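Recap for those who missed Tuesday's class. We walked through two folding examples back to back. For each one, the amino acid string is listed first and its predicted structure tokens come directly after. Nothing is annotated here on purpose, so try labeling regions yourself before you check the end of the notes.
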Amino acid sequence: MPAKIPATVVTGFLGSGKTTLIRHMLQNAQGKRIALIINEFGDLGVDGEILKGCGIETCAEEDVVELSNGCICCTVADDFIPTLEMLLGRENRPDHIVIETSGLALPQPLVRAFNWPGIGTRVTVDSVVTVVDGRAVTDGQFAHNLAAVDLQRSKDDNLDHETPLSELFDDQIACADMIIVNKSDLLDEAEADTLLTQLASQCRDGVKVLKTSMGALPIEVLLGQNIAAETDLSSRREIHHHHDDDTDADSDEHQHGHDEFESFVVTRDEIADAKAFGEHLSQVIRDHDILRLKGFAAVTGKPMRLSLQAVGRRVDSHFDRAFNADESRQTRLVVIGEAGLDRAAITRALCE
């Protein structure tokens, strides 16, 4: 059976910067073919046109699908499932699917849909990414243009939940595997620290809260989290039990932002025990606030290479293939985190 295609759900209020985040992702896709499902409707959205016109080889026009019949969580059966089946049924299937929800969407019903018959065996939710307008949330508004949100609500005839913005925000935070505080350049250092601490106290254990400006995050931070969110619905339950898209994006390439993250490679000899090493990695991640860790290990006495992926404190591993005859039996790990990692200390810890 072919491997499941990973899907990333990007949620957040109108104007939080979801489209800019996705555009930056596409411009730095590193050869991945990414298909987009854009939940835009009424006269408000221009996301699809922004993304279709991005001119990126790995994201052709046919890879961008717009759902314009209303809030995606209210039209799952009619719109979302058939669209997903269409993408999965193509001969040139995408490497990754990114779903940008309406700012009014509840993420939980969408994640739940990935358990539908015929869907769950072919696609998995890599992660739920919630984009937060840092300035608006700090000011207690949740969205920078409340009138635009009200207009969006009024134009959606299929919307079946009249949820206050504060409750929608709570549900977006509760469902998130990663929270991105966008527009951090509009906050001073104290405001940013306060907001990140506040959000970290609201979310589930292990959820990363990051700050950025103009959605400039490395693709290796956003994609490949391997969460399988559809298998973990109980921990991301709807708090209230109901049930920007960034239209100012322009042609700037937004090269800034990557200097807030760093990565480096640690090489060491074979490891003795795969399970013990996984537990050790989890502790190193916790001790040094590492964002992602991935790579391969050689295990003494094992002919197969051990593939390792760590997000937060969870470490997943499996033996993926045999070492080639001319291949060195070394362990190589890529460490990814926010700028300022103590490389020497992390290297020592990983080589213990």
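Example two. Treat it independently of the first, because the proteins are unrelated.
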Amino acid sequence: MKGSIRHLLAALLLATVHATWAQDRPPPLTQAEKQQVTASLGKLLAETYVFPEIGEKAARRLTSNLASGAYDAIVDPAEFGDRLTADVVAVTADKHFRLAFDPQQVAEDRKGAQDEDKSPEERLADARKDNFGFADVRVLDGNIGYIDLTGFEDLEYAADTAAAAMALVANTDALIIDLRRNHGGDSAMAQFLSSYFFDAESVPLFDLHVRKKSEQVLSQYRTLPYVPGTRTPHRALYVLTSQFSFSASEGFAYSLQNRKKAVIVGETTGGGANMWTGMVVSDRFYAHMPTTAPIDPLTGTNWEGTGVIPDIAVPAQDALMVAHAKALENLASTHPEERDRYRWYLIGVEAKMHPIAIEPATLRSFTGTFGPLAISLDAGKLFLENRGSKSELFAIDRDLFGVEEFGYFRLGFVRENGRITALVVQNDNGTSRRYKKEMHEPAPLE
């Protein structure tokens, strides 16, 4: 999982390299090179692929295809890499595997210049630029915590930031963790964050199977006996996913879902569980070879090729609002003493999920001055203006509006004889205040 961010970057680089090759084509493949690459890749699959039997089966598939002439018409090296990749994945269903035509990477590997050659200081500087993956940490309406986590950075560097993020949302009534833009990273970070949602007693999360020559070495990832700050094992947790969610982010969602610790909301994830190691296949071909597999002891398998299937399937762009609404709905039903407050915020979220259209003439009728408050119309949208600030309104009902950024109060317009005569500021604690609309008499005719 740790290599998945680099995996994405490598894929993007390969796309660029392919465009360059289109202008400056490399020497075409010979039959001898195809035989050498196929044999070398088959040997690596048999000896290093994480599951020995599957690796050997994939190797036999390549040998059979070569012998049958399936590759005879291919002369473009990039096309050959893509074809062999497809043939291996057809057997393994492993989305981390890739064979690429990449002479530059081969040369760098042979010189020992791999992407791990950055110093700790350089890696720390790179991670800090993205705030160690914590793109947003805040509290949504109704005291619902929200963490937008775009990558699992090395725990060695990111632990303090992760602990600070968890501290900020420690007192929220439910928590949403957003992995929709998360393509993976460090499994230790997933382990660290998962531990906040369990008691101090250690619980197994997944077994890590590592292929070393003819053996598989097993290690176990468990929840940690200590994490800084507050554990919240009984707080409702919602994890947002998309098709882009991959590798370690999938493992985080998968483990918590299987242990009934989280509700997964969004789309089925990318389906990349096994971790890869870069390997030289020949002078011109380089492979991402999966050598490690996390296996959940509860399911006996992982999410490779299938992805994590959400409990609530919705388009990724809708997942946050759906999870927010579900959290408030659940809290309203389980905390009757706070039901009215949670339902107040739920009504606001549902209004944004299902916006109502109000005709322009009606919107104009709401504009005016109400005591210290002013309502204006700009580009078809209503705004509340007060003491130099300007906040957009959204319709909850035809005469009732919520205020963006200020969920704890709403504006209800009073209509008498078809005219707006007053505005009532309604608060989430049940209090309210009424402001009469200032009526301006038309100027006398000259």
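Answers for example two:
The first helix runs from residue 4 to 23.
The first strand starts at residue 98 and ends at 101.
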